[in-house]
């Protein structure tokens, strides 16, 4: 390759001719790729943002609880913020006095799921408790909470990963311990791309299906201002065209938006650039794919 040829070696190891102005992200991306997951690095850096889509989904979840729905399903594409929403929402419910087991991974084995559920329900179990005894203690504890008129909300994230045995457990819980008479509610979160393969029996029992929508360009602009306020010493500046590029290349997914802004900020801090261009956004997105 000739020395006078303008080029840039990207974090992916290939060269781009005529690099666009404001594309100093290769070194930052290269350093993040030495870790097992660049997504894990950048995700922790972004501030939380209550988008209109988030607030609407929370309002509908609250509505499901107010109606004492037996089952409600929260769905949305990968990276839409379902887990973040459920983490924030369950924390609020617990502060308000509800009993809220939150199982982020249903698990492969029936005993794993039962054990985690029993522990979070504060059931009387020990290391030697068998699966049959676990199931009995769980039901016993749920019955006790119902008699005490305690609000119980069982939240299960990533249910598209659950085994058939776990689905059977959830069905029994929904039939016997959830709804207007039993007092409990079952909230399930599932990737919308896998909704068709989701257990049809549970889907039919759902009183409400809530779609967590992607962010609009206006949402991205609002989040950018929130982001800039969280990092006041950062030179990160995005004009309208760049914000539109972030919205376009992220497809409105909060996780990807956060990754783009995080890497843009780190790239600017490692260079003399003062702003991010649409070309920078495109280059970062290509590297993240």
From TrEMBL:
Signal peptide: none annotated. It comes from the Bacteria. GO terms for molecular function: ATP hydrolysis activity. SUPFAM superfamilies: P-loop containing nucleoside triphosphate hydrolases. Residues 68-190 form the ORC1/DEAH AAA+ ATPase domain. This is ORC1/DEAH AAA+ ATPase domain-containing protein. It comes from Blastopirellula marina.
